[in-house]
Amino acid sequence: MFMTHVQRSFAPPSTQPSLIEPLLFEVKRLIVGQDHLLERLLVALLARGHVLLEGVPGLAKTATIKALAQVVGGSFGRVQFTPDLVPADLVGTRIYNARSAEFVTELGPIFVNLLLADEINRAPAKVQSALLEVMQERQVTIGKQTHFVPDPFLVLATQNPIESDGTYPLPEAQLDRFMFKVLVNYPSYEDEIVIVERVTGTNITLKTLLTPEHLRAFQQQVDQIYVDPHVVFYAATLVHATREPAQHGLHHLQQMLLYGASPRASINLVAGARALAFMRGRPYALPRDVADLALDVLRHRLVLSYEAVADGVSPDTIVGDLLRRFPPPHIDLGDRYVA
User: Fold this and answer.
1) C-alpha dihedral sign at 271, 273, 278, 282
2) What's the rounded Cα separation, in Å, for the pair 143 and 237?
3) DSSP one-letter code for 202
């Protein structure tokens, strides 16, 4: 069992006030009722991760990403994935120039800071693989030349959960490349009224508050966020329990899980906790930051058994059981911030 209280002497360094709050406020001038989605997008941006969004049409997934791109600055691109798309349409290709009698490289639309891959599950496996390779390596080889994508680089992919005809579901190995899988739900009644008023009212123009240089500086600050060893222990405990649930007192999950999360899940939990701590104004991560991100980090990395699916068990149900079995431990880091 993971210990529930840890005493540790640590004097955290001073931290500068973050510009994240005004950035969120600016995006919310247009986007209503998507606070969780906005927070996860910013965490991924600060932690150099990528996000997979799943939701029915009309929930402002594309509008949210466009608004965020406008506020944070940098270049933005959108690719509508279709069954007839080929890898060259995404990464680029070499074109013969008759005048100069030589080949020139035409770069594809992925060479932007924020890329929206709309309905990624509608493109064939070759196109999905081409995009996911760029996500991992952040570079593309065309001919004999290697081209690096801009820094920072964030892929925001969307998929529709209610249509399966003509789709190519992402395999588990490719899903693992995404830091988060965020489920976008319907807005509340009150939020929907505000949405209608804003969309049908006066046009809202968002301000650009940051630049790519600012974002890189923020990412470097996030890298300096202190991570106590017990935060790493907690993240590893949650992930290992998905592979060997019986060893962690979760015998009822043994028959529900075919495969648990990979070590990339532990890495993303800690990296995301750093970014979340930075957004919350702390110079160090806490176990509760890991717990807050666990659902979005783990849900797409769990492979359920047929019996679990037949019984209506979802990955979210399993992650909920994990968090109840292992609530975030208390860590005293020596100042007023105590989990």
Assistant:
1) negative
2) 44
3) S
Tokens linked to 255: 């028959």
pLDDT tens digit sequence for 202-233: 888 888 888 888 889 999 999 999 999 999 99
CATH number for the region 5-15+225-332 comes to 1.10.8.80
Q: How many angstroms separate the CA atoms of 47 and 40, rounded?
A: 10
Tokens 């509760």 sit on residue: 288
Closest by CA position to 48, among listed 194, 177, 188: 177
Residue ranges of domains in the chain: 5-15+225-332, 20-209
CB-count burial class (<10 Å; 0-12, 13-18, 19+) for 154 = buried
What are the tens digits of pLDDT across the range 83-140? Answer: 888 888 888 887 877 777 777 778 888 898 889 988 888 888 888 888 877 888 888 8
CA 338 to chain centre: 27
d(CA 121, CA 119): 5
SS3 254: coil
Distance separating alpha carbons of residues 6 and 290, to the nearest angstrom: 16
Burial classification of residue 262, based on how many CB atoms lie within 10 Å of its CB (0-12 exposed, 13-18 middle, 19 or more buried): middle
Centre a 10 Å sphere on the Cβ of residue 194 and count the other Cβ atoms it contains: 13
Amino acid at 166: G
**Where residue 267 falls among pLDDT bands split at 50, 70, 90?**
very high
Q: How many alpha carbons fall within 13 Å on the CB side of residue 327?
A: 5
Integer-rounded Cα Rg, in Å, for the chain is 21
CATH code of 20-209, in short, is 3.40.50.300
Say how far apart CA 264 and CA 301 lie, in whole Å. Answer: 10
